[in-house]
Design goal:
The complex is a heterodimer. Chain A is α/β, with parallel strands linked by helices. Chain A has eight helices and ten strands. In chain A, helix 5 runs parallel beside helix 6. Chain A starts with a strand and ends with a helix. By secondary structure, chain B is α+β, with helices and mostly antiparallel strands. Chain B has a six-stranded mixed β-barrel with strand order 4-5-10-7-9-8. Chain B has a six-stranded mixed barrel with strand order 15-16-21-18-20-19. In chain B, strands 14-22-13-23 form a four-stranded antiparallel beta sheet. Chain B has four domains: 188 residues, no CATH class; 190 residues, no CATH class; 160 residues, no CATH class; 217 residues, no CATH class. The chains are: A alpha/beta, B alpha+beta.
Chain lengths: 233, 811
């Protein structure tokens, strides 16, 4: 199985008011193509920090980051941005849709940062992504006109539109009621079934247990890495 | 309420830098507004302490569409007075310079020939003695006598009583020479009375019905009091009706002459009310900028406190209470700012006083201090500013969505409403500052032009003074001519004096505009063009070093027995004989006077400016008649030296006294100073606009940066999202500039258009400004655009220094 991301001896330290906080320590983690990985742990254990490093939203203080076989530890800001744009799709807890853009424009947004897609291609991809999450009929609506569940589906469509190597989801059901949360999880499982690689941070054990692999963190260290593929299936 | 005030005060003390900045901005804005209000009020709207002031109007002539030009003909005054129904009092006066002499000491004062009823109009009463009664005027004056003073009584001001008579209690009944004639002092006016303008000596006159109609002649100022139920407009219409009747009867003197009325205070503004409106407009713009800036700071502060407001609401605080509480902070800031603003305004008035005095001495109600009237209005300005500044932020903050504000993690991009508000505020800020900067820039260049205007000669080294040949010794041109010759000869014998001359006016002024008839030019409709008119001594152009372009100068052969001659300016010659020489042509001054003679043009001089060096007045033609053929009472003498002209002052006074000690010189100024005084008001306006311009620039830069910085910072999380989705820094910069371009273009377009309109209005009235519009606008737009781009990119640069991860979590 091909590895998409490899983290080798990763440390992440935050400096606040001259106090040094070790958020992640000696992280060794490989995410392979087609996996649905959940990262769990108590509040403050470093889940979201780990996801930020995985998504190149932040840089590690020490260690090596390998993406699709290439060392990505020392990339510039713009190089990291380009990789995020092409290889990584983000799904946030608070959806993070741009309120001034309508549904179509929100999904289109990451594609506008590329120079290798024609207008027709962009349009096709946006419509396909929206169709995949069943939000095509709301493409002219603004985020404020949608429910939380619908907003998260649009966010997923946005993450999918660029055909990324991996989807990173940070508590994707955290702001949703149980019915909408289930619907989002079902959607993620469906995408996984279709071959998507997903890494999801969650503190919901039931969600975590529904994935193919569960990584547990405690005090910035990986304390458990369990393959759940049989159960997930 | 007290609790809210204490809490607001505590919050302000908690954020000293915010409080300090807002108070400073407010103090500057309010100080400027209060200062400008005081100036504008003083110039145009002051409520004078005169009984029934609301019904007191001044009636002036409108000649060739220009207001306050030459006042009203005596005949016309009498015609209207006999017929009018709108006014309960209708009284004439003539302001004039009068000399008081007790045989030992002669002193010049601004004075007035005044009809007895005028005193009651201006609310004057005698401190000692009495005011005039009808029997004080021995004889009604008529046009042909050229001197309306037929009385032998005089009233003096409280100031003259103090200064000239040393407060002698028995001054009433004493005799004094007024312009060389013995008069008896019958009254001392109450302290502070100096009406109509700034007069200290009053001599009675009476305008009778036997004026020679249709011949122009003496002109008068008219003060009138409206009947209680008559509107100014109705009175104005009545005046126009009579003007038309007079014009129809006497087209030769009254074509293009009509009348208008306005308040006493506004008469002094002459044609300059547009400047007053412009100053008011500019002040409003500055205040709008201040309110926008401080309002924006208050809004930012209110938004930061949305959680506190939500908690208060959740605990049951009524919305009105929340608004009041937030508004109190603004009121405290404005009151403190207003306090310092009043001090600033008072200081500004102090430093303005000498500036005003340099251009005319002022009028009696030009008081450069803050009285109760000004302080009362200042308080209203402060309160209005508090409401305008604080209400919107308070309302917006009180309208917080309690649930979302109390909920953690309310992340997201700015709301659409907030973005729209930001766009409006930034566009407004840009257009306000653009308009002000354009106007200020253009005014500064225009005024600089007028200060350094080419009057057609170099005034350096010239000292001038006025004198009045009004004693019985100088009743005709021959005797006056003799005085002129003796004075010039004596002055030119002094080794320190290079040259000396006399004239009725030097450049920068004229002896008025005369109707001119041109031979062989159709004048059957009796409508004559007008030209500036001067009487001059033979060496006038030599003295000024102004070349004659054609013909010859005046000489001793030009006298009362010889051919009447005239020299015309090049602009006159070009206007009436564009394709041929003017030499030998004939013109007639006072064409309606049957005794007027044709004058032959013997010379054409390089054009001189005999009025303001800007606007349409600048280009009017002029004619010059030799003093040897026609000399007026009121004259100037000029002496020239290579050094400081004021070093000649003592010599000038002493030598003139040798010629005739009863003819004092007065208003002694260098010609450079005289010309500078002509543009003094413009220098003041320019100084004000420099202050406006600097303030507008500072407020615009600070305001635009403040708003854009807040707007960009508020979008930190949105930029985090965009960067998470793959946007590089350039994408964010491009996005901000693209979005900002709309605000920038809207602001500068509206600002440039408004600036153009303001410049056009000003240009048509006073200065020639339009030539500077495009260059100034280009610079202003560049400065504003650079400011805007910097204000957008600098905060964005700071935001983009954050890792996307931190940006996403930015609260």
């Amino acid at each position: 199985m091909n590895s998409i991301i490899e983290l080798k001896r990763i440390d992440k330290t935050f400096l606040t008011d001259e106090v040094e906080t070790l958020a992640l320590s000696n992280i060794e983690l490989t995410i392979n193509e087609g996996e649905f990985v959940s990262i769990t742990g108590p509040s403050g254990c470093g889940k979201s920090t780990l996801l930020s490093l995985l998504g190149l939203l932040d840089t590690a203080s020490q260690g090596q980051f390998v993406l699709n076989g290439h060392d990505a530890s020392h990339l510039s800001k713009n190089e990291r941005a380009k990789i995020r744009n092409k290889e990584i799709g983000f799904i946030f807890q608070s959806f993070n849709l741009i309120s001034d853009l309508d549904v179509y424009e929100n999904v289109e947004l990451p594609l506008t940062y590329r120079n290798d897609l024609s207008a027709d291609e962009i349009k096709t991809r946006v419509n396909e992504a929206l169709a995949k999450v069943d939000m095509g009929h709301r493409n002219k609506h603004f985020p404020s006109q949608l429910s939380g569940g619908q907003q998260q589906r649009v966010a997923i469509a946005r993450a999918l539109a660029g055909s990324p190597s991996i989807l990173l989801a940070d508590e994707p059901t955290g702001n949703l009621d149980s019915q909408n949360a289930q619907m989002v999880m079902d959607l993620l499982h469906e995408l996984h079934k279709d071959g998507a690689t997903i890494c999801m941070v969650t503190h919901d054990q039931q969600c975590a247990n529904s994935t193919s692999r569960r990584v547990s963190l405690f005090d910035g260290r990986i304390v458990e890495d369990t393959n759940l593929s049989n159960q997930a299936a | 309420m007290l609790r809210d005030i204490k809490y607001a005060w505590r919050l302000l003390l908690k954020t000293p830098s915010f409080t300090g900045i807002t108070i400073v901005v407010m103090a500057i804005g309010l100080g400027l507004s209060i200062y400008m209000f005081s100036i504008v009020n003083m110039l145009a709207y002051k409520q004078l302490d005169i009984p029934h002031y609301d019904r007191l109007v001044m009636v002036d002539a409108v000649v060739d569409g220009m207001e306050n030009q030459g006042n009203v003909y005596a005949h016309d005054y009498d015609y209207i007075k006999q017929r009018q129904q709108s006014f309960e009092e209708f009284s004439a006066y003539i302001t004039i310079s009068l000399s008081l002499s007790n045989g030992k000491e002669a002193q010049r004062y601004d004075g007035a020939f005044i009809e007895p009823t005028a005193f009651s109009l201006f609310g004057g009463h005698a401190h000692l003695g009495r005011t005039f009664i009808e029997s004080d005027v021995k004889k009604a004056f008529v046009d042909t006598e050229r001197n309306p003073d037929h009385s032998d009584v005089v009233i003096i001001s409280y100031q003259v009583w103090q200064e000239y008579y040393n407060q002698q209690p028995d001054v009433i009944g004493k005799t004094v020479q007024v312009n060389g004639k013995v008069h008896t002092v019958i009254g001392v006016m109450n302290e502070g009375f100096a009406y109509p303008m700034n007069e200290n000596v009053w001599v009675p006159v009476k305008v009778a019905a036997n004026q020679k109609a249709g011949q122009g002649g003496w002109t008068l100022s008219i003060a009138a009091r409206l009947k209680p139920n008559v509107s100014l407009e109705a009175a104005h219409q009545e005046l126009l009706t009579y003007s038309k009747e007079i014009t129809a009867k006497y087209p030769e003197s009254n074509t293009n002459v009509s009348m208008h009325s306005r308040t006493l205070v506004q008469t002094i503004m002459d044609n300059s009310m547009m400047i007053v409106y412009l100053l008011i407009g500019a002040t409003i713009f500055i205040m709008a900028l201040v309110i926008t800036n401080v309002g924006n700071l208050m809004l930012a502060r209110a938004m930061e406190r949305s959680k506190e407001v939500a908690i208060r609401s959740a605990l049951g605080a009524p919305r009105g209470r929340i608004i009041r509480q937030m508004l109190l902070e603004t009121i405290i800031i404005c009151l403190i700012g207003g306090f310092f603003g009043v001090i600033l305004a008072g200081w500004g008035l102090d430093i303005t006083r000498p500036l005003f005095q340099t251009f005319g001495g002022g009028v009696s109600w030009w008081v450069f201090s803050l009285g109760w009237q000004e302080l009362n209005i200042a308080l209203w300005i402060i309160l209005a500013t508090s409401i305008l500044t604080g209400l919107l932020p308070a309302i917006k903050a009180s309208n917080t969505d309690i649930n979302s504000a109390l909920r953690d993690g309310t992340r997201g991009a700015q709301s659409k409403q907030s973005t729209k508000l930001t766009k409006i505020v930034v566009s407004a800020e840009i257009f306000l500052s653009c308009t002000l900067l354009i106007l200020a820039g253009v005014m500064i260049f225009g005024v600089d032009d007028s200060i350094h205007a080419d009057y057609g000669f170099e005034p350096q080294g010239m000292l001038t003074a006025r004198f009045t040949l009004n004693t019985d010794n100088y009743k005709n041109t021959a005797s006056r001519k003799l005085y002129h010759q003796q004075l010039i000869n004596l002055l030119q014998q002094d080794p320190a004096i290079e040259s000396a001359t006399t004239a009725s006016a030097f450049p920068g002024r004229s002896s008025g505009r005369q109707s001119i008839q041109i031979e062989d030019m159709d004048s059957s409709n009796k409508q004559y063009p007008r030209s500036y008119f001067m009487t001059i001594s033979n060496n006038y152009f030599d003295f000024l070093d102004v070349p004659l372009l054609e013909g010859r100068a005046f000489s001793d052969i030009d006298n009362q027995e010889s051919l009447p001659v005239v020299i015309v300016s090049a602009s006159f010659a070009k206007k009436y004989w564009p394709n041929e020489s003017a030499i030998g042509k004939r013109i007639k001054t006072e064409p309606n006077n049957p005794d007027s003679q044709w004058r032959t043009i013997v010379g054409v001089n390089k054009s001189l400016v005999h009025a303001q060096p800007f606007g349409q007045e600048q280009f009017r033609p002029a004619i010059y008649v030799p003093n040897n053929q026609l000399t007026y009472q009121y004259q100037y003498v000029g002496v020239k030296t290579s050094g400081d002209p004021y070093q000649l002052q003592k010599t000038l006074v002493e030598l003139s006294a040798k010629v005739d000690s009863n003819i004092p010189l007065y208003h002694i100024f260098s010609l450079s100073d005289r010309l500078e005084r002509r543009v003094g008001p413009m220098v003041f306006v320019s100084s004000i606009f420099i202050v406006f311009g600097v303030l507008a620039l500072v407020l615009a830069v600070a305001g635009i940066y403040g708003i854009m910085s807040r707007s960009v910072t508020q979008r930190t999380q949105e930029f985090g999202v965009r960067r998470a989705l793959g946007a590089i820094d350039t994408n964010i910069y491009q996005l901000l500039l693209k979005q900002g371009m709309y605000m920038l273009l809207t602001g500068i377009t509206v600002g440039a258009i408004l600036g153009y309109l303001a410049v056009s209005v000003m240009s048509g009235t006073l200065l020639t400004l339009e030539q500077y519009y495009f260059s100034v606008t280009a610079v202003v737009l560049l400065v504003i655009s650079i400011t805007f781009v910097a204000a957008t990119l600098i905060p964005a640069f700071k935001v983009l220094k954050l890792e996307p991860n931190s940006a996403l979590r930015y609260e």
